[in-house]
## 1
Amino acid sequence: MDEQRLTRVSKYLSRHLRHRPEGIGILLDEHGWVAVPVLLRAAARHGFPIDRAELETVVTANDKQRFALDRDADRIRAQQGHSVPVDLGLPPREPPDFLFHGTVGRFLPAIRREGLRPMRRHAVHLSTDRDTALRVGARRGRPVVLTIRSGEMHRDGHVFRLSGNGVWLVTAVPPRYVAGGRS
Ligand code: HQG
């Protein structure tokens, strides 16, 4: 499976497992899962045939481990990043003292004013290292990395969860925990 096909299938799955299941007529269960044969049939019916082997390759080879199969490989879901309501069932976890968020300069005035908001997703995404945050920010322009005082947030009662692919999730970050911008 070449790189281009891998990316195309990954984008297609992200779209329908995170944002628009109804676009191909599938229903995600409350935890975000859909049966693999149901997904494959729906994709084929909507002009994007994917075979089972390709699906498994996309799950295992995905650069960010965006998708997970359940234990018996019967069902698939996106590990995070949803805009449709799903309960990923992730337990609360104590975060490290500092986490990082990648964004761009044009959002800084609003972020300073109101903190980080999840926008169209369910949660604000934070990473454990600056490099990942830089890459996330760079999707939108010249990246700025914000340092988040996550340890302090946690001590103040904010609930953090860690997705299956290593992204820290929190409902929002009030402005006082945003330590500083750095290009
Ligand atoms: C910004 C990709 C104004 C926030 C990435 C971000 C990540 C505000 C944008 C994952 C704001 C939301 C998530 C406020 C936050 N005012 N702007 N108060 N609060 N923002 O895409 O973190 O490839 O929903 O800084 O790699 O950029 O899809 O979030 O710029 O892991 O798997 O609003 O998506 O992963 O954008 O990216 P997003 P994100 P995938």
Note: The CA atoms of residues 90 and 161 lie 6 Å apart.
## 2
Amino acid sequence: MIEKALSVLQRYFGYTQFRDGQQKVIDSLLRGTDTLAIMPTGAGKSLAYQIPALLFQGTTLVISPLISLMKDQVDALLQYGVPATFINSSLSLKEVRSRIERAARGEFKLLYIAPERLESESFRGLLETLQVSFLAIDEAHCVSQWGHDFRPSYLQLGPFLKSFRHKPLIGAFTATATEEVQADIVRLLELNNPRAFVTGFDRPNLTFSSLRGENKKIFVLEYAKSHIDQAGIIYAGTRKEVDNLQVFLTKNGLKAGKYHAGMNDEERQKSQEDFLFDEKTVMVATNAFGMGIDKSNVRYVIHYNMPKNMEAYYQEAGRAGRDGEPGECILLFSPQDVVLQRYLIEQTIFQPERKMNELKKLQGMVDYCHTPRCLRKTILEYFGEENIQEECANCSNCNDEREMVDITVEAQKIISCIYRMRERFGIGMVAEVLKGSRKAKILELRFDELSTHGIMHEVPLQEIKDRINFLVAEGYLQLSNGEYPVVKLQPNAVSVIKGEAKVTQKVSHQPSREDAVEVNLFDRLRVLRRKIALRENLPPYMIFADSTLRELAQVFPTNHLAMIRISGVGERKLEKYGDDFLEEIRNYIVEMKNKATPLPNRSLIGFQKDIPQSQIDTQRNVPTASTRSQRIHSSAKASTDKVLSHQQTFILYQEGYSLEEIARVRNITALTVQQHLLRCSLDGQVIPWDDFIPSEQESLILEALRRVGGEKLRPIKELLPDVVEWFTIQAVIEKYRTLGMEK
Ligand code: ADP
């Protein structure tokens, strides 16, 4: 039976094998067993019911909570050549009837329905004309009040199921469900001897980071800039925060959209589409955004505020990298988030048992933000997995290479200031006093007379606030509850003041921008995909997923036979788009061959394999910033499709661009351009060094080299007049090194 399913997978969807868990769920359904599938976001739930639907007689009903999700799924299915449609409140009664009639004639294999529709008796009557063999319930956790997303309309499902003369097979699907929720699903949907499958919650392609004490706004800006052509979601806690952040990012040149429940339907729809169609690359949103979104090429999800529990966090973060390509999930913690979430629970949940439950979950989230252990392990354990390896090597705790800085003196200044202000003020006020503000209120309270007034005047105000936040996050300080939290000292602050304890903070490097601007086949295919998407009025990822483009860019198929082997290319898509993509690939190969340098046996395509940067750098002492983001980029670079950044620089130089122009065009610094050339030279590329060496300086530099040797640059530079640049010295050294090699 599973062989049939596999052939449907290959024929329609173009994938060669099932993912972990998918096969078990499909197998169970094909055997006619009611099935509960708990599969994390991105694991491929949809295929787990779409494939049985294609194999069963009659029509499969899919209950799905959001109108936008339905349309999206149906559009995607039509793209694959699967006959499907949906029924929701956006259709006229006439249209509803017509779709049901067509379904009854067997024109659709899948019919998506919003749960609200089931409330109407006449609609249920209409459905009776269908031969329904299978009912798939998406987001099944919505049926449970214990879940984080209870929807009363899901309770309609019970009575609806009773109305069938022959109860159809049921598949219930959800991304997260605690044991209570699982029990509710089984009970309320009256699953008959069900089998439950909990697919591994791990999403190995996602990198998890939890950062404390960052300047969030600047972090987000820098991050989004350095990933400028990638799609990302930034979740913020409140509508106001969303509004502010979106304006801030837009002002700084980013294509940022926003989404929250305070916008009207039309605005939200437009904003969502802009994001799906890659018109906007950053989506700033509250948690209202996402359930309906199946965009598979979201490369990062940043939480600007801590969510209320791990279920919500993992579901939202899980929207990154659904296509299996690398995705980054960053949580920016600040202590106020805890205060806010606790306040919300206190204000909105009255039943003591549920309140306790929510507070416990909140604590789980706070622990995640503070743990020094592997983050992936922490998440997976929360969801009840066992035997997880200690370190995943792909989270901010396992890979923490940030610099440890001693901030004891600053901490002492802050603590002593809070003490002198009698622990009665918030972070803003304390920071102002440390900065030395002479605002009316400060003078009025005579804080300008404190010995700590202005004691940190040289530090930017925001940085002082960041430090205070950090001390709260580390438990030296505490914020009181309530609307205006006050900073209080904690017992261990005393040992800091007494000089008995040291305070250290890891300082992160800002992500580098350089890697974001590589021109390669993948990017070109993306541009082509966008063009086709506009033509067809579809979101780009529905043409092909990022993972498919990446594979195309690695394999370079040049004919249909080679292309159908690529994962994600089925018969229908090959027919529709194959030629466009093949042509782009062929053009690329020709262009690269023409551009390839005259080096023997080394066409550019031939030497795309990334030479581990670390090796080169240690040999040659070329400085590199070992930023986390670079590591992520370099793992992406490990794929062989790229013309590496430094090679691209040299290609531009050969095309006649000056170094300044290259820096401008590529949005990198002049220094980076120079280093690219040096790196090309180390790769064995012949660089016309004389272009960069003023002839009158060459002999001076050679003379200096003779005196102090070429091991270190500084002693050489010190022997030379100031006009001689560092790069010129390096150019001379490289020139003679390579000449030496040739001899
Ligand atoms: P979920 O609903 O669980 O979040 P989806 O059904 O949207 O996940 O699937 C996520 C992505 O994975 C989609 O782009 C889908 O096409 C892809 N996918 C699903 N199954 C497979 C498979 N067996 N092989 C390769 N890709 C798959």
Note: Residues 521-594 form a domain with the DNA polymerase; domain 1 fold (CATH 1.10.150.80).
## 3
Amino acid sequence: MRSNIQDSKHRSSHTTEQEFGGTLGAICIPIFLPLTVLLLITLCQSPDASVLQWPPLLPSSERLWDPLAPMLVLGWMALHAVLYLLPFGKVSEGLVLRDGTRLKYPINGFYGLCITGVLLMLFMWLGAPLGFLFELLLPLAMCATALSFLLAVYLYVRSFWAPPHALALGGNTGNPLYDFYIGRELNPRIGNFDLKYFCELRPGLIGWVVINLGMLMKEVELRGSPSLAMIMVNSFQLLYVTDALWNEEAVLTTMDIVHDGFGFMLTFGDLGWVPFTYGLQAVFLVMHPQHISPLKAAAIITLNGVGYYIFRKSNSQKNQFRRDPTHPSVARLETIATATGKRLLVSGWWGFVRHPNYLGDMAMALAWSLPCGFSHLLPYFYVIYFTILLIHREARDERQCRGKYGLAWDTYCRRIPYRIFPYIY
Ligand code: NDP
């Protein structure tokens, strides 16, 4: 394998610049992020929910394991694999790859969400105790993490049989730890089944909202009815997930699909991190009920609505522009030329700040935490983490765009000086 690594390094290593802390990051992140997930769930389920407890609250070993968990995780993955293969919806082409070809992707994630919803209603009608997900959270997170590791090992090994042009530019450094973490192969497929695209939006995102529903049902078990705060968190996050799956085609132009290889960073991000940390507010509310006045609720709903509007409009505008710049909705926008032949928008949403979509996303993230009140920091984990993630992501994107567009990108930055927050950053 070593000679393979060296061989592929000579044949197709495109960049040695390492992201996410290089080798040190590639060692620490796969250890500490799964532990963080377990710690966060444990804290949210504890009466104190204090992030300042020292030593940190560790779950007992019997709380980490339940034989039902691996069956549920594998059954869940199998269900979504079957839904992925159903001949519903259109088939769309991704961006042009380095060998000049374009891959085809089924756009049927929204149907997957709807069918899952119907199946869940059926299970609940048959008496399935969905609230039990509260007790199962730690074992489920353990199993999802184990699955992410196994999948990443499989992806790493199989990447040595991939042709050089199928490798991600940044995941092919020859450093096994780093390449395992960041991902070597860009679009690993089994036949027509695209593993990265499948994991990106379906099992994790839909799993997240199902866990949220489980927390709502747990609240019903404990207190007779769901609280307004719980309904708000469930509804906001369901809107976000529904939007992502309704606009599934847009994922084909994101950094994850176009630029990043499929390694542990994405397997764990998609299957372990998103479903078990993005909905922590709902887990927190089960143990720490909150009262919200109608006025406060209206203000939070407005914030989520404004954030959603900015997020959706800006993403749709750029996607439309990249797919068809002559479309009437974008044809009149001011643009600047680049040496690659692609143009950059300098008016409309993308003339407001350089990442208006991140701004809207952050506003929504804040709205998801506010229903949890101000007594604890823990339910604000998502908005704090997400702000750091998007600021880091913006810097990565900026570096890539400067590499791609050179002087034209500098001109764009001079025209639109603020990155995410107008007049601040
Ligand atoms: P973006 O959708 O912001 O895409 C960035 C790319 O857009 C650039 O690389 C460039 O690519 C193109 N671009 C940048 N500026 C312009 C311009 N002025 N005119 C035309 N094209 C431009 O990237 P992401 O994939 O990071 O984000 C997509 C969405 O997903 C965002 O709303 C983000 O908030 C969300 N997201 C959510 C996450 C979550 O965990 N909830 C995680 C990550 C993202 P090119 O020129 O090559 O087309």
Note: The pocket of NDP is lined by residues 254-255, 311, 315, 318, 321-322, 342, 344-345, 350, 355, 357-358, 361, 393, 397, 400-401 (CB under 6 Å).
